[in-house]
């Protein structure tokens, strides 16, 4: 716990330009935002096989010293053990509320992103398969894509999402955004004036949804209906990403599209 944060700490994700998908980009950006909020420098390294390098099989993962930790929840705990926490100022009721909203985001937004990527046939054929398999030669690119599609669809079946229509999924996203908008209100962050890991998680998903080119704009339009959520994303982008190094190793989500700032 007493060890200082190393200068060579690295975050691994898939290739930005050609490979990474919406859900993984959102998860990676959430971790980057969290570490920025903790004022802990991280270098982003893009690898075609990042998913297979990860101890959990999920991205992003961080390599800090001799430790490798994947996904936001475990990374938050790891960083806390090193003496950095965004939620220490919350009381027990607030901490429970924060965790409930984080569960909501993961259960609704992340699941909707996965559904769109792997269960919407047009998106699968035009975006997901070409991007996911892009680093690999034929037929490996198709084999890996179909393998991942089968895995995600099996999960969707297990949680009762396999039979949903795209309209129902978009309605779930709208309900999630409505709940987040109500909780945020006119505050700068979800818990008053200081960001927590909830702010990092929400920013990662909403910013990526707002800035990723999909087949249609239906998903991003759900978020745009809530002006305080789009203003929230702009605020975090300005405070924690604008003005930092502009090279590809630091500012996330630029590859998949544009900044929210006009």
Note the topology.
Elements (H helix, E strand, L loop, with lengths): L9 E4 L8 H16 L5 E4 L3 H4 L7 E4 L2 E4 L1 H10 L10 H28 L1 H12 L7 H19 L7 H19 L12 H15 L6 H7 L2 H14 L22
Parallel strand pairs: 1-2
Antiparallel strand pairs: 1-3, 3-4
Keywords: Acetylation, Membrane, Mitochondrion, Mitochondrion outer membrane, Protein transport, Transport
Main location: mitochondrion
Organism: Machaerirhynchus nigripectus
Strand order of the largest sheet: 2-1-3-4
Number of domains: 1
* CATH class category: Mainly Alpha
Overall outline = globular
Q: Give start-end ranges of low-pLDDT stretches.
A: 246-262
Output the radius of gyration: 18 Å
**Helical stretch tally:** 10
The run of helices and strands is EHEHEEHHHHHHHH
- Count of strand segments: 4
User: Whole-number average pLDDT?
Assistant: 91
CATH architectural designation: Up-down Bundle
* Beta fraction: 5-15%
Main location: mitochondrion
Protein name: Metaxin-2
Domain Mitochondrial outer membrane transport complex Sam37/metaxin N-terminal: 28-148
Pfam family, one: Tom37
């Amino acid at each position: 716990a007493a060890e200082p944060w190393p200068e060579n700490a690295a975050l691994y994700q898939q290739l930005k330009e050609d490979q990474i998908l919406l859900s993984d980009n959102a998860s990676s950006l959430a971790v980057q935002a969290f570490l920025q909020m903790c004022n802990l420098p991280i270098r982003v390294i893009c690898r075609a096989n990042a998913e297979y390098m990860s101890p959990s099989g999920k991205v992003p993962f961080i390599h800090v010293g001799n430790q490798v930790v994947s996904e936001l929840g475990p990374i938050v705990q790891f960083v806390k053990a090193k003496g950095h926490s965004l939620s220490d100022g919350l009381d027990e009721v607030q901490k429970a509320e924060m965790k409930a909203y984080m569960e909501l985001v993961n259960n609704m937004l992340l699941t909707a992103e996965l559904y769109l990527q792997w269960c919407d046939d047009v998106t699968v054929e035009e975006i997901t398969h070409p991007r996911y398999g892009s680093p690999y030669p034929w037929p490996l690119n198709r084999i890996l894509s179909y393998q991942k599609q089968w895995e995600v669809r099996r999960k969707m079946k297990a949680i009762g999402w396999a039979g949903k229509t795209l309209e129902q999924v978009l309605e779930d996203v709208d309900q999630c955004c409505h709940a987040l908008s109500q909780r945020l209100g006119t505050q700068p962050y979800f818990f008053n004036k200081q960001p927590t890991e909830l702010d990092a998680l929400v920013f990662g998903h909403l910013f990526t949804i707002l800035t990723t080119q999909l087949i249609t704009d239906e998903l991003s339009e759900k978020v745009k209906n809530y002006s305080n959520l789009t203003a929230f994303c702009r605020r975090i982008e300005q405070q924690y990403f604008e003005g930092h190094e502009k090279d590809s190793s630091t500012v996330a989500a630029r590859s998949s599209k544009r900044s929210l700032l006009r």
